[in-house]
Design brief:
Layout lengths: L13 H4 L3 H6 L6 H19 L10 H15 L6 H8 L3 H21 L1
Helix pairs in contact: 3-4, 4-5, 4-6
Length: 115
């Protein structure tokens, strides 16, 4: 006999699953239209700053770079921008966003310590 008791696949971000309840409560504010536009502008500036020097971000899809930078900044500002939102706007897949998000987080923190 075969056992067909597979767990249903979830579309919840692994980073969200690893967050504590306290961290989840902090990320609750849905950004307004103006806040989202500002996030987009700031994401462009962040990407330009990170790409000025040698970076592991070189060669990544521009839409993935932008959506990962928006996600990074939204998390810093405690705004609720989900991976699903970014997929619908930029057609960026979760795996690529998580990978690029980690690179941005690392390189942005290195850049801040150098300043």
């Amino acid at each position: 006999t075969t056992n067909n008791t597979q767990k249903p696949k979830t579309s919840i971000s692994p980073l969200f699953l690893n967050m504590t309840a306290k961290e989840k409560k902090k990320i609750s504010k849905q950004p307004s239209y103006e806040e989202f536009l500002q996030l987009c502008k700031d994401a462009d500036n962040l990407i330009q700053d990170l790409l000025k020097g040698p970076s592991r971000l070189q060669g990544k899809r521009p839409s993935n770079l932008k959506s990962a930078a928006i996600w990074y900044l939204a998390r810093q500002r405690k705004l609720n921008v989900t991976l699903n939102d970014l997929y619908h706007i930029y057609k960026s897949y979760q795996e690529a966003l998580i990978e690029i998000h980690k690179i941005i987080k690392k390189e942005a923190s290195q850049q801040q310590t150098q300043e």
